[in-house]
Hints:
Blueprint: E1 7-11, H1 17-27, E2 31-36, H2 39-51, E3 55-60, H3 75-86, H4 91-102
Parallel strand pairs: 1-2, 2-3
The structure holds NADP nicotinamide-adenine-dinucleotide phosphate.
Amino acid sequence: MSTSRKVVLATGASSGIGPASAELLAERGHHVVLGSRRTERLKEITEDIHAAGGSAEYHATGVTESELAESISDPEGRERMRTYRSVAIPASSVAAAIAFAMDQPAGVDVGEIIVRPTAGRT
Length: 122
Ligand SMILES: NC(=O)c1ccc[n+]([C@@H]2O[C@H](COP(=O)([O-])OP(=O)(O)OC[C@H]3O[C@@H](n4cnc5c(N)ncnc54)[C@H](OP(=O)(O)O)[C@@H]3O)[C@@H](O)[C@H]2O)c1
């Protein structure tokens, strides 16, 4: 359990990195607030966290879709960006990096985390 309980807002919490991070941070004693559009998934994840003894709530949120790929004029480059964004480092690995940052003492601020794969895709 973390020594300093925080309130954590997890956006994109219905699949992938969001729930992996929310579950890990709740396990470490933080209160997690889950947000995304699919509230039925958020309800299930919140119930799982409660069942495991954690503290969580959820709210429906909607944000603007990423337009990064659309800003690339070269068709091949655009498609590569779409593919790149869809290929995953395991969500649990990203969650572990986020939890590391969250667990720093009050006087330490980890403002940015860069997570990169260490191996090429096959
Ligand atoms: N996994 C990786 O290796 C990796 C690496 C670098 C960057 N990323 C980026 O990290 C982000 C999350 O990755 P992931 O693998 O966890 O993706 P994911 O499994 O597809 O999860 C995306 C989450 O975002 C939510 N979402 C999508 N559109 C939304 C909108 N308009 N408003 C509110 N919520 C929205 C989805 O929930 P609802 O559909 O329920 O709203 C879902 O919970 C992505 O942007 C991805 O490109 C991932």
